[in-house]
Amino acid sequence: MPDARLLFDEMPNRNSVSWNALITGYTHNRKFREAISMFRMMQLANMEPTEVTMVGVLSACAHLGALSQGTALTDMYAKCGVVDEAEKVFGLMRVKNVYTWNVLISGLAMNGQGEAALEIFSKMVMKNVKPDGVTFLAVLCACCHQGLVEEGRKFFQSMQKEYGLRPGIEHYGCMVDLLGRAGLLDEAQEVIKNMPRKPDPVIWRALLAACRIHGDSNLAEVAIGKLIELEPDNGENYVMLSNLLARNQRWTEVGEVREEMKRKKTKKVPGCSLIEIDNVVHEFVVSDGLELKWQEVYNMLVDMNKELKLAGYVVETELVSFDVEEEEKEQSLIYHSEKLALALGVLRTSSDSIIRIVKNLRVCKDCHSFFKFVSKVYKRDITVRDRNRFHHFRNGRLLVRLSGDGKCQRIIGKLVLGVGILITG
């Protein structure tokens, strides 16, 4: 290895092959710290890592027992929606603590893989690793996404009886969400009533989401009232109340809510979506002037809308709150920020790559349907990360997971060093 390093240092030009050869060589010769050090130098030289690079670095981390680095990398992959890679890193780690297990369980739950998350939890317990409050929060979230009501009840009880852990506000929120999604609204209200502390906005939003799903307008109005009471300056709460009233065609009260918003000068948080193409992050926020900058995207979106309708797509207009004609409702939905980002992705990325979008708010029902049809008609794999979770689309279906691609490996490789994850002493 000394001769190889000397030859490398004397090279006037280096590419990914030469960097990878040295990193892999160090790993094969059990010089793991040197391998990680070379990876750091590679990044500082602005050389993008490849799949070969990451395999070498991960192997070095695993052999070093670099617990914090491996845990952070598992977390990074999971939060980027690449669960396969997160599981690979986790499997390579010879030493695991409760934080490492929590990261994988949370990542699986976040990506809609509830049953897999519970399977990992079972393995954790079998390994005699004592779960903590974060573990049970991840487990309850997994139950929520899979609709596992009975299992959720048992876990909520066992964290108190078997492990002596006191549920926090987040655990109660998960239970309200779990029961509410299953239509058990009365039981969800009982959980709220029996809480040892005053419910916070997270609790009421969980109940409100359940009311939306099951059409309980009266209880939804109670939940929104509590939200406004707790957060009088949060414009989103007034928007939700306005939407609820509009669904019931209570237009006079809708007008009153809007006047109240003007008086308080509260505003709705605008939807914002991000997509990375050719190492450039593009941001879409629907506002005046965006049409001029992205005219080709707007034109593409109009064409896509027409083509999807021929394939059976129907615009979900019932969530539009305005007292206007159906055609105007459709127009208000067509230019949601995530649709604009998707149109750009279809325009400017290769057909074999995954389109990855991040949004600051929840993806609405119409956009969810739109993405399904795009994945089928345009034969594209799509991953969307909204405020709550990941959504993976392929061939008109919502999938449990999508595998990572080379581009994702390179992006995550940059992020890894950018936050100092693989810096060792």
TrEMBL record:
PPR repeat extents: 15-49, 97-131, 132-167
UniProt cross-references to SUPFAM superfamilies, sorted A to Z: TPR-like
Pfam family name, one: DYW_deaminase
Every DYW domain range: 312-397
Keyword terms of this UniProt record: Repeat
GO molecular function per UniProt: mRNA binding; zinc ion binding
Domain of life: Eukaryota
Presence of the UniProt keyword Repeat in the record: yes
Gene Ontology biological-process annotations: RNA modification
Family statement drawn from the similarity comment of this UniProt entry: Belongs to the PPR family. PCMP-H subfamily.
Name of the protein in its database record: Pentatricopeptide repeat
